[in-house]
């Protein structure tokens, strides 16, 4: 008879060891190992993640079983790639279009989407709104209520416009036991629950939402719900279920205090898409960011606003971070940053003042603090400005976060503007990456950035003078090339600089 074995799992990353360790060798965290008993699997042979190959396979889109595995009870056989149907042609529509773009254009058959975010940011509101739109399009939704009661979900759905006579396909399953859930995800059971009966034609497409993965547990794992072992096992079983059935599955995940998804990192490798749902410092703006997507572009960003009727896409999202701007003020510079396929205009603000106490402060919001310290050192060494004895405060207005290297020059110009108490002229944009030797380098997709800036009234841009290349001009905006940090700072403050005007005429075709 097989015996239970003892393992030690890191509660931060899920790394497994045979004995207790003070520091996790995978994530370097201290005192995170917890002892757990692991029971060996008993009975039928399991698949790669524990899903029984002999279990029933629900039918997928169009009434056909998914091509992700062999028929029930049959041994797996190799299949020529030419005979495998592409999943790109089998996508479910998604509304709003902002979320559809983040998902890569729609929801792919049999895909698994992991949605993470802080408590109260609106994950359940987003998924409930999507579910209501899907059921109105004839798509059935099964909502696994692990954290809320059905009455709470009904109350939120009514706030978002739920009407019982229009949404019969919105099914609630208040269950957290994994084996019971898999037994309930049967076509006959779901058809009876929705009151439609078993139709003669193909069954409707079905989407499963598990809210949340941390609440599910299985009898196959001797561990408490929410532990790395349970999360890894339940996530793997649902991922196998999605690929065998062809039903897309959404997994809602909690986050740790550092902002990472709770549970083992292996869960992010199991799923097809990882989305982070972020707030904006307590405001109404919400952003859905794709950090992994097997069926689309990573780095895409959807911008929405939380209202009483739910999440609504933001109009003029490219100008969102400039709302409330007072105009010409010292210590502010505007740049155009890329986030996936979107271009946003952001204002970088800086405050430089003499240090009153001991060591100068470096306080940063929205930009990497080490990056700001690096740019301040470059400005002091290559630009001739004395920042060593000054407190430096830098932030991105509007609660955004900038990771684009094209914003380097905006940080440098904002610091110089605050130190000199000279504002950047109205309608001036600064773009460029700054090197350690003080050179200004070009940015990617320059034309798209310039078109976005010109569309919002900017008439002048200070950018890198790329040797041997003639930047393509954009109607209505003057390009002022610069080769060094010192020159770029001077040109940013002097729109009528003769050298700048001559170089702009030479660089513009």
Q: Could you please describe the fold and organization of this structure?
A:
With 509 residues, this protein is of the alpha/beta class. It has helices at residues 97-102, 123-136, 150-159, 178-184, 187-194, 228-245, 266-270, 369-382, 408-420, 446-455, 485-493, 498-507; strands at residues 5-10, 16-17, 33-38, 91-92, 107-108, 112-117, 140-145, 170-173, 206-211, 249-253, 273-278, 285-293, 301-307, 310-313, 332-339, 342-354, 362-365, 390-396, 428-430, 433-434, 440-441, 460-464, 478-482. The longest helix is centred in the middle third of the chain and has 18 residues, at 228-245. The protein is globular.
List keywords for this structure.
12 helices; globular; 23 strands; 4-stranded mixed β-sheet; alpha/beta; 3 domains; Rossmann fold
- Strand share of the residues? 15-25%
Number of domains: 3
CATH topology of the largest domain: Rossmann fold
> Would you state the CATH class of the largest domain?
Alpha Beta
Instruction: Characterize the largest beta sheet: strand count, sense, and whether it forms a barrel.
Output: 9 strands, mixed
Protein topology:
Elements: E1 5-10, E2 16-17, E3 33-38, E4 91-92, H1 97-102, E5 107-108, E6 112-117, H2 123-136, E7 140-145, H3 150-159, E8 170-173, H4 178-184, H5 187-194, E9 206-211, H6 228-245, E10 249-253, H7 266-270, E11 273-278, E12 285-293, E13 301-307, E14 310-313, E15 332-339, E16 342-354, E17 362-365, H8 369-382, E18 390-396, H9 408-420, E19 428-430, E20 433-434, E21 440-441, H10 446-455, E22 460-464, E23 478-482, H11 485-493, H12 498-507
Helix pairs in contact: 8-9, 9-11
């Amino acid at each position: 008879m097989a015996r239970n074995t003892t393992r030690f799992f890191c509660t931060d990353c899920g790394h497994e060891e045979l004995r207790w360790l003070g520091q996790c060798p995978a994530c370097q965290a201290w005192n995170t190992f917890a002892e757990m008993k692991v029971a060996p699997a008993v009975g039928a042979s399991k698949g790669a993640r524990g899903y029984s190959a002999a279990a029933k396979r629900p039918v997928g889109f169009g009434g056909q079983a998914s091509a992700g595995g062999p028929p029930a009870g049959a041994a797996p056989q190799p299949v020529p790639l030419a005979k495998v149907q592409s999943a790109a042609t089998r996508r479910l529509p998604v509304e709003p279009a902002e979320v559809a773009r983040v998902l890569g254009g729609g929801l792919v058959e049999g895909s698994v989407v992991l949605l993470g975010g802080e408590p109260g940011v609106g994950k359940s509101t987003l998924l409930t709104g999507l579910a209501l739109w899907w059921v109105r399009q004839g798509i059935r939704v099964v909502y696994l209520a692990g954290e809320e009661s059905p009455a709470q979900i009904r109350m939120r759905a009514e706030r978002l416009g739920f009407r019982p006579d229009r949404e019969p396909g919105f099914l609630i399953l208040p269950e957290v036991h994994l084996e019971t859930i898999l037994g309930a995800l049967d076509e006959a059971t779901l058809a009876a629950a929705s009151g439609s009966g078993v139709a003669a034609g193909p069954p409707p497409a079905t989407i499963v939402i598990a809210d949340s993965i941390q609440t599910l547990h299985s009898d196959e794992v001797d561990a408490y719900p929410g532990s790395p072992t349970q999360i890894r096992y339940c996530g793997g079983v649902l991922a196998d279920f999605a690929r065998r059935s062809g039903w897309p599955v959404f997994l809602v995940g909690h986050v740790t205090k550092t902002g990472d998804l709770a549970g083992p990192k292996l869960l992010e490798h199991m799923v097809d898409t990882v989305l982070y749902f972020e707030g904006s410092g307590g405001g109404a703006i919400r952003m859905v960011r794709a950090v992994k997507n097997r069926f689309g572009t990573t780095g895409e960003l959807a911008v929405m606003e939380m209202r009483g009727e739910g999440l609504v896409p933001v109009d003029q999202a490219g100008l969102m971070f400039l709302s409330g701007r007072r105009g010409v003020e010292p210590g502010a510079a505007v740049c155009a940053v890329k986030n996936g396929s979107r271009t946003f205009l952001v204002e970088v603000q800086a405050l430089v003042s003499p240090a009153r106490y001991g060591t100068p402060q470096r306080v940063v919001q929205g930009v990497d603090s080490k990056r700001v310290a690096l740019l301040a050192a470059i400005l002091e060494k290559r630009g001739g400005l004395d920042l060593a004895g000054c407190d430096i405060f830098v932030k991105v207005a509007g609660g955004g976060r900038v990771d684009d290297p094209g914003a380097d020059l905006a940080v440098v110009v904002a610091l110089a503007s605050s130190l000199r108490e000279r504002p950047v002229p109205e309608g001036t944009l600064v773009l460029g990456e700054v090197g350690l030797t003080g050179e200004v380098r070009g940015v990617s997709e320059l034309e798209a950035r310039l078109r976005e800036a010109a569309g919002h009234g900017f008439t002048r841009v200070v950018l890198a003078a790329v040797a041997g290349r003639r930047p393509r001009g954009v109607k209505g905006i003057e390009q002022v090339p610069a080769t060094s940090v010192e020159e770029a700072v001077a040109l940013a403050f002097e729109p009528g600089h003769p050298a700048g005007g001559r170089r702009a005429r030479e660089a513009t075709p």
